């Protein structure tokens, strides 16, 4: 009976999948689980982060990150602007992430490459770009399509029917952290998050040209060694060229934001 329920759950989830269009016009397959479930998974993963990783006690840096996050999320579509939560983790790796449910994590190591508020905005806007482009939804759907989501479906079923709720929560959290949210994004998603994020930062009044400077800093910080993310990210030089070209086309968006009074002063 349990196997039958799992099979039916997977079949039902896949049948519910939908084809949609991403913010850049790309066709996506999404909807294997509901947005509510996806948000719950993001919240669970974020809770695990906060329980296991040390938080920064630097109030000035924490306020700095919060200011950039708030400036960016105010420019999201109606209904997606509120409820965002950010945390600054005491970790020397230059990294950041955003999860469904409006959760953003930033490592203190990011300040080694993000030298000003515009460069920090480029990082965070890129990560928000993954969320609003439904990349996590796309990855969950793809995993279930490859039948690697059986354990996840089982956990969701257990939670839904109230049987072993605690165990189900742990299973969902593990699946999220290991199999969905922390695996590298593919190059298509990374390029798309660049496009969406750079436009978002310009709309918020951050200089889109600084996304170029950020990636130049990233390359310099790698000290000539190929960074870990290179295998799944676009070629850094091509990425910088594309960011530079878009910065020119977004100059009007940036100037309009500035004229409208959107001039963030975060740090």
Protein described:
The structure is a single chain. The chain is mainly α. The chain has one domain (2-146, 183-259). Helix content is 58%, strand content 8%. It has eleven helices and five strands, in the order αββααβββαααααααα. The chain has helices spanning 2-15, 35-52, 59-73, 117-132, 135-145, 150-161, 165-181, 187-203, 210-221, 236-249, 251-259, and strands spanning 18-21, 27-30, 85-89, 96-99, 103-107. The strands form two sheets. The chain has a three-stranded mixed beta sheet, with helices on both faces. A two-stranded antiparallel sheet has the order 1-2. A hairpin with a 5-residue loop joins strand 1 (18-21) and strand 2. Helix 4 (117-132) packs across helix 9 (210-221), helix 8 packs parallel to helix 10 (236-249) and helix 9 packs antiparallel against helix 10. It starts with a helix and ends in an 8-residue tail after the last helix.
């Amino acid at each position: 009976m349990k196997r039958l329920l799992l099979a039916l759950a997977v079949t039902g989830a896949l049948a519910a999948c939908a084809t949609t269009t991403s913010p850049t016009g790309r066709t996506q397959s999404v909807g294997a689980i509901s947005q509510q479930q996806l948000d719950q998974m993001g919240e669970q993963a974020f809770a695990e982060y906060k329980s296991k990783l040390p938080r920064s006690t630097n109030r000035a840096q924490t306020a700095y990150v919060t200011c950039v996050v708030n400036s960016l999320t105010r420019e999201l579509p109606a209904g997606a602007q509120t409820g965002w939560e950010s945390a600054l983790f005491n970790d020397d790796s230059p990294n950041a992430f955003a999860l469904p449910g409006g959760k953003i994590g930033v490592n203190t190591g990011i300040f080694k490459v993000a030298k000003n508020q515009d460069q920090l905005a480029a990082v965070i806007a890129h990560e928000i770009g993954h969320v609003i482009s439904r990349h996590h939804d796309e990855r969950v759907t793809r995993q279930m399509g490859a039948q690697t989501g059986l354990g996840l479906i089982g956990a969701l079923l257990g939670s839904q029917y109230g049987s072993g709720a605690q165990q189900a929560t742990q299973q969902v959290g593990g699946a999220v952290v290991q199999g969905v949210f922390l695996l590298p994004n593919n190059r298509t998603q990374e390029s798309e998050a660049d496009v969406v994020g750079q436009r978002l930062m310009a709309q918020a009044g951050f200089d889109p040209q600084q996304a170029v400077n950020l990636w130049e800093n990233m390359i310099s910080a790698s000290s000539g060694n190929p960074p870990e993310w290179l295998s799944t990210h676009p070629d850094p030089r091509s990425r910088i060229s594309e960011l530079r070209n878009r910065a020119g086309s977004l100059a009007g968006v940036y100037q309009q934001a500035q004229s409208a009074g959107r001039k963030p002063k975060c740090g």
